[in-house]
Amino acid sequence: MRPEALLCSTPAGLYSPAGDFYIDPVRPVDRALITHGHSDHARSGHAKVMATRQTLDIMALRYGAGFAGQTQAAELGQTTEINGVSVSFHPAGHVLGSAQIAVEKEGMRIVASGDYKRRPDPTCLGFEPVACDVFITEATFALPVFRHPDSRDEIAKLLKSVEQFPERSHLVGAYALGKAQRVIRMLRDAGYDQTIYIHGALAKLCDYYQSQGIHLGKLAPATVENGSSDFRGAIIVGPPSAFLDRWARRFPDPVSCFASGWMRIRQRARQQGVELPIILSDHCDWDELTQTIGDLGPKQVWVTHGREEALVRWCDLNHIAARPLHLVGYEDEGD
Ligand SMILES: [Zn+2]
């Protein structure tokens, strides 16, 4: 079977002509397979949704129980037939519940990896390489300039600053799904046992992570009414959007921190008024992308959402057939 008959790009997203389903469609469709809960991949309004149990739970938390007509939970590693196409889900290492989706028919296997990363993350299962003929990779940080530093060193930078400035609060911007819980969990792993204050927008997802066995320690709402704390010396975690509104002004002389892969770009950190950039990404950096393609050795690589050209060029130089997919509508909320 030609790969394009198994999966191809359409205005609504990645579509399987053979199986009549979409992967992470950007418009409402009859049947959607969803890789993970970030809002650009997981949208409400599809008739049927298949995803891991955790991704379905996260979608219900974010959109309400009626986010789809019907849902089907995918067990990791198990194969399901959809209109004669074999479909299986495998850990992607991106956020809790995230999965790559492998589709196979007549000896042709394509893996749509969604968003993924290779380095360890204490809040989700690690990326599992799946041999395939065609590997579809994201390209969020697909430039050689993007080399993410050791994640633990970045968390150590935050803790050192907390120690140096005990009279100031540390306001950490982190995306609500995945990044926020990863920052909190890594602070715990580094030995920080004080209460961590969270913005209301993180509460349901943090509760959900805890219900799934990801222990986040003592959390409390970052509200002034909540008690005696004036937040001096405290760590407060909130979504990046909250930093622009009045919510952020209640904290004493805050050190503004932002946990993102984009913090590699100093100018970007400065423009956003970030005093302490924390380079922590839920996506592969350049080395992880090229290492993954090297490990899998697919016959073809299809590149999507991000800096497609550089990775396509790298594949060309390494004699791997590659092309950009030109899918639209993906701007990851969890970089
Ligand atoms: Zn994502």
Automatic annotation (TrEMBL):
Entry keywords, A to Z: Exonuclease, Hydrolase, Ligase, Nuclease
Superkingdom: Bacteria
Enzyme class label: hydrolase
Record-listed E.C. numbers: 3.1.-.-
One annotated GO molecular function: ligase activity
Domain Metallo-beta-lactamase: 9-175
Listed name of the protein: Ligase-associated DNA damage response exonuclease
